[in-house]
Amino acid sequence: MEGIDLSGLLGGFLEITWQQLIMVVIGLVLMYLGIFKEYEPTLLIPIGFGCILGNLPVSVNMIGPDGFFGILYKAGIDNELFPLLIFLGVGAMLDMRPLLSQPIMFVMGALAHLGIFATLVVSLLLGFNLAESTAIGMIGAIDGPTVIYVNGKLGSLFETPGLAAAIAVTAYSYMSLVPIIQPPLMRLFTTKAERGIHMEYAPRPVAKMTVILFPILLTIFAGVFLPEAAPLIATLMLGNLLKESAVVAGLTETAKNAITNTATIFLGLTIGSTMQAAQFLNTGTLRVLILGLLAFALNTIGGLLFGKLVCALSGRKINPLVGAAAISAFPMSGRLVQKVALEVDNQNFILMHALGANAAGQVASVLAAGILIQMIFPLLLH
């Protein structure tokens, strides 16, 4: 009886490098955090799984132009389709009433994103080019779809190999770590007395016509003045209009659930598949991780400091914790603000106000992306 030739079966295993093994371990860690720690499982499970597949011998057949991941990349990342579909669902989840009833939240959302611009400058000083620095700075918004969108717009101008994958994974990783990173900053930059400030529970009423006109007018504004951000704003606002119209419940539910979940699965898998050892394991990735954390921290601190200013100007009627929610991690950041407030006083309910700031942060991050792209393209062309 002839012996069985196992060389073909073992060939693939023997081809795996130690760098690829490291990436497989990273993929397993991401899935562990998603499954057992429940840190953004809808993101980390598909990203981790894609990371593993992207570093196995099978990836040769899956990542090429005609492979599974190659087709997904062309279909949803190259043309920014997946982020836009996710934004449609996010818009259908947003309640703009707390924001519209307190216009100061718009300013809070804008100032909470100053970390984006500060990190952009730091990245330039560290040797990244302008396009790369812009995408790295956007990590601070903690808005994965917007980061993917900016990557898609500026990625052809990147000079550092594997940087687009590193930026995307860093953005989604920090989205999952919001419950770990934000609360310590909230406690550090506010006093116990400030965290215990009560706010009027119910913001003033907002007319239905106002919440219907807002997404329409904002879309027109973006289309005229920020055409580079118009697709993001349009899908976000369309989702919100579907919700607020209250006449297309089926479309609203489809946008919130079926479309968002499908796009998230494909987006996560595709991002994970780009985490290939040859391009991902380098000092550039480490610098992106550090700079992304800096941007995230500065955005949160900026929101808190402006919250403290508004608190003082209002005669201590506004809890400064609300400023920490003025980033794009909706609705997680708003819920965390409520949780930290309850640590001081279990009768202190500021969730609606925090979600208003959270909605402002979501809109502001998209506008910031549009402004940056709009400003940078002419500079890069010259």
Verbal overview:
The chain is mostly helical. 73% of the residues lie in helices and 0% in strands. It has helices at 7-15, 18-35, 41-54, 59-62, 68-77, 81-93, 97-100, 104-111, 114-125, 130-137, 144-154, 163-176, 178-189, 192-195, 208-225, 230-245, 249-273, 277-280, 283-313, 332-344, 351-381. The protein starts with 6 loop residues before the first helix and ends with a helix. The model has no long low-confidence stretch (mean pLDDT 89).
- Extract low-pLDDT stretches: none
Termini separation (Å)?
Answer: 73 Å
Order of helices and strands: HHHHHHHHHHHHHHHHHHHHH
Number of individual domains: 1
Portion in strands = under 5%
Number of helical segments with 4 or more residues: 21
Mean pLDDT: 89
Radius of gyration over C-alpha positions, nearest whole angstrom: 22 Å
User: Main sheet?
Assistant: none
Helix content: over 70%
Shape call:
globular
SS-derived structural category: mainly alpha
Topology, number of strands: 0
Summarize the structure.
The chain has helices at 7-15, 18-35, 41-54, 59-62, 68-77, 81-93, 97-100, 104-111, 114-125, 130-137, 144-154, 163-176, 178-189, 192-195, 208-225, 230-245, 249-273, 277-280, 283-313, 332-344, 351-381. It has 382 residues and is an all-alpha fold.
